């Protein structure tokens, strides 16, 4: 094993230990420098180590939590074989909500942190990451504008659904998701009947006619 891989393994392990130590303390301390200090002590890490692992402070800790929830959702979902796309999207959203709810109090505090104006860009990036991972699990391989449209739609469902689940409970969140799944399927149906390459093809043909006109 190379030195760089050993350092990477240490960092990954230390980050997860730090997150483990932070979760039971987050309800009382919030995602603050005080939480980083307490979690570092609980994980047996020095202040220097914590600063090295999380250079952006609490924002990096919130990102670690979100990505852990993404991984746990995918572990529960398995390969999704035999499920139709609507079922995959519904199952993916449910698994992601359940993963966040398993760390209920810490997730609530993370949601409050991400709702602050200075953290909205981070909130958007993390929600997009989650939506991207769910679409990839569902088998999406689009690389054109559909790639972005799908993730934008799913992000627009996931973000409020997480808030509803954490603060209002599973039943309202499930009702919200089921109502919005229709938005995803309506897009899929609309997209299926469109030839997104047609404008480019028409332009190319027009240019060819102009170029080779007698």
Report what the structure shows.
- This protein is mostly helical.
- The chain folds into 2 domains: 1-55; 58-195.
- Helix content is 80%, strand content 0%.
- It has helices at 3-29, 33-42, 47-53, 58-77, 85-101, 104-114, 120-137, 145-168, 170-192, 198-212.
- Helix 1 packs across helix 2 (33-42) and helix 5 crosses helix 8.
- The longest helix has 27 residues, at 3-29.
- It is globular and about 55 Å long.
Number of domains: 2
Which residues form runs of ≥5 with pLDDT under 50? Answer: 210-214
> Given the structure, what is the number of helices?
10
Estimated helix fraction? over 70%
Key structural traits:
214 residues, mainly alpha, 2 domains, 80% helix, disordered C terminus
Task: Explain the layout of strands and helices.
Elements: H1 3-29, H2 33-42, H3 47-53, H4 58-77, H5 85-101, H6 104-114, H7 120-137, H8 145-168, H9 170-192, H10 198-212
Question: How do you describe this structure in short?
Answer:
The protein has helices at 3-29, 33-42, 47-53, 58-77, 85-101, 104-114, 120-137, 145-168, 170-192, 198-212. The chain is an all-alpha fold and 214 residues long.
